[in-house]
Amino acid sequence: MNNWTRKEFLKASLLGGGAALIAGRTRIYGATAPAAGSANGDVRVACIGINAQGGSHMRDYLMGKIKGSRLVALCDADEAVLNRQKAACEKEGNNVATYRDVRKLLDDKNIDAVVMAPPNHWHSLMTIWALQAGKDVYVEKPLSHNIWEGRQAVEAAKKYSKQIVQAGTQNRSSQDIKEAIAYIQSGKLGPIKWVRGTCYKPRDSIGKTEGPQPVPASVDYELWTGPSDLIPPHRNGPKGPIHYDWHWFWNYGGGDISNQGIHQMDVARWMLGAPGLPTEVQSIGGRFGYRDDAETPNTLISVFNYKNSAPLIFEVRGLGRQKGMKAMDVYRGGSSIGVFVQCEGGYVTVSEAGTAVIYDNDKKVIQKLAANTNGTHRQNFIDAVRARKQEIANGKIENCHYSTALCHLGNISYRVGSEKSDADIANAIKSSELTKEAYGRMVDHLKANEVDFTATPAMMGPLLKIDGTKEMFTGSEKEIAALANKNPLRKREGRGAFKIPVMQSGAVASS
Questions:
Q1: Residue 382 and residue 136: Cα distance in Å, rounded?
Q2: The model's pTM
Q3: Which fold has domain 6-171?
Q4: End-to-end CA, the chain
Q5: Is-contact 277 266, C-beta < 8 A?
Q6: What is the DSSP letter of 374?
Q7: Exposed/middle/buried for 475, CB within 10 Å: 0-12, 13-18, 19+?
Q8: Are 113 and 43 within 8 A, CB to CB?
Q9: Fewest CB within a 10 Å sphere: which of 84, 104, 136, 384?
Q10: Segments of the chain assigned to CATH 3.30.360.10
Q11: pLDDT tens digits along 449-499
């Protein structure tokens, strides 16, 4: 622990906030006090996982787009990525520290905050470790690879409450969405009937390999794998055997509902105003149009039922409007990737960019909201860090946990399901008008892509009952509930040195 000099003590006293000692380092708190030790009062930031989205974060900090911050360190398990990004920093005159092992980075007392965008399977563990090390945390969506570890991250944020935590759900910084929600809550459109999120995003085949692929020499595969099961890569598409295509494998990702869809899922849940988890979930889908190495569905319908709220439907499509076409379907004149809120007296559409349009039921525009403030989200994190005020950080970790959990719930229903014929599915869902309507449009979409349902039947998941307090599956069909609870997307504890720290067990309260 650092000892204060007289000069430091007087400086803290003049700031009026005193001081707090956190996890072996000194941080000065005041009404607007920045992190102690940073040049010119800037927050010293490290970016972790810097190949894709993390590279975007790195460039924002490197180029001075995030005011009140300074990029001081980088971390990536791929040495080639690390060297490339370090060179980019040096080109701009910034000689950053570099690490391959995040644990060593977290020991660096010259780092105040971490901005993390590694693969999904690392998000919760890195969040917990960073909080334990006394760092402020920006963690990219989704919060977790499974529901249980996401809860541990939430509880860690509560335990280490002097640190600032923000999730990368940038729609939470959208003034347009906030105004649209206020309009709905005013009652001018009547009660919500249902909310639909769509992720119609083109996804080509990643190719088919003949077996395990060699790990590139630049990758520390033990570190890259972290809490996931240590198995050889079984992919080698345009991004190679390691990067990006991990999204389509259950050991690391959750398909597009967890990748892109988490953004729209978060908006849909926010619009609905539903606290906690739903009471039921059911999914139908499959991987259609090609055969490749990937495991996750490229087409999926998930229906979530709530006790005291309208239902939420989420749809994923990775194929174009018809076979050979790159253009994607658009839901009811809105957008391919977005949210649609149907009320009794009208509806609201929300775009991928976070802008919104309010309509009456005759499709007449009532109001357009296009301030487009999503881009302020990253700055909002640093503003919260400098002010030492968690309440002004827009991306609350518990909100991200519940929205991420919805993605996992949908995937779990799919994973414990079985192949069914079109006729069997239609018969099973005949009592649910919303599921019937969504499935009918899915079938039309797949027929336009010349999918043969006889050769490639859809997977139909069971209607799973959910105990939102315990964040587990329940119900009279105990064997199915037990199978769902054993799924790694419900709970996986990590491995070896990468075990998830247990922060809380037992019941949780909805919020």
A1: 9
A2: 0.92
A3: Rossmann fold (3.40.50)
A4: 36
A5: no
A6: G
A7: middle
A8: yes
A9: 104
A10: 172-498
A11: 999 988 999 999 999 999 999 999 999 899 999 999 999 999 999 999 999
